Amino acid sequence: MGLLRASRFLAAAFVAVAVSAGAWAADVTFFAAASLSNALPEIAAAYKQQTGNTVKFSFAASSILARQIEASPGADLFMSADSDWMDYLDSRGLVNHATRKTLLSTHLVLIAPASSTTTLKIAPYFDILGALKGGRLAVADPDSVPAGKYAKSALTSLGVWNTVVNRLAQAENVRVALAYVARGETPLGIVYTTDALVDPKVKIVDTFPDKTHAPIVYPAALTKDAKPGAKAFLDFLSGPQARVIFVKYGFEIRGGK
């Protein structure tokens, strides 16, 4: 478990360094869920080409970012991988409620290394423990990180959470869980469809029924102290150029309300 603890430390350090060393140089500072770390930089590049303005990102678990926003200023925009952590900041007056919009959605999948021969159909009481073959199941922290909370809900709904709760390789965000599987450190993992699609070293074993967990949504909002220029990028995220990029990475577009 030393590797897991070390990766948590590195992720926390990454957030701190990204904020302290780079935020001052950007027109907009954007705290966003780790699962957006492929799509958003590409969108920001298109935005810079069009406007000349830059966006600096800090990617981590929504829980870590929300607490960072609560602890200190610095972020202009926040985009969470669930409603809960946006609600957390909203209820404390730390985001501009009037700017809040739900932009995206995705699905939850069971993954294995690309070379794996594992086949498994997700259904009530399916034998996920047997499929682990003594290994561990990679999931984001099920108590705080959205991807982990969705995973816990889905496995509980299917009646198998108690069979695997002691066989988890807990990660600080969904991309770390993805990496555990991609590197072959765990035989199975639970991530979003959009994460699985960006890594050729994993394959999707099956998709969890949407009814087994809360809808996976991505709300975005300006923080209460956002710089004036931040709204322009938030609006850009709802526009046609951003939508094409989001769809390219497997996200589904929401109505924005």
Structure report:
- By secondary structure, this protein is an alpha/beta fold.
- It has two domains: 2-104 and 218-253, Periplasmic binding protein-like II (D-Maltodextrin-Binding Protein, domain 2, 3-Layer(aba) Sandwich); 108-212, D-Maltodextrin-Binding Protein, domain 2 (3-Layer(aba) Sandwich).
- It is built from eleven helices and eleven strands.
- The strands form two sheets. The protein has a six-stranded mixed β-sheet. Strands 7-6-8-5-9 form a five-stranded mixed β-sheet, sandwiched between helices.
- The longest helix is centred in the first third of the chain and has 21 residues, at 2-22.
- The chain is globular and about 55 Å long.
What count of structural domains? 2
Q: Return the CATH topology of the largest domain.
A: D-Maltodextrin-Binding Protein, domain 2
The number of helical segments is: 11
Class by SSE composition: alpha/beta
Q: For this structure, what is the CATH homologous superfamily of the largest domain?
A: Periplasmic binding protein-like II
| Main sheet specs | 6 strands, mixed
Topology:
Elements: H1 2-22, E1 28-33, H2 39-51, E2 55-60, H3 62-71, E3 77-79, H4 83-91, E4 101-105, E5 108-113, H5 128-132, E6 137-140, H6 146-157, H7 161-164, E7 168-171, H8 174-182, E8 188-192, H9 193-197, E9 202-207, E10 217-222, H10 230-237, H11 240-248, E11 252-253
Parallel strand pairs: 1-2, 1-3, 6-7, 6-8
Antiparallel strand pairs: 3-10, 4-10, 4-11, 5-8, 5-9
Helix pairs in contact: 2-11, 3-4
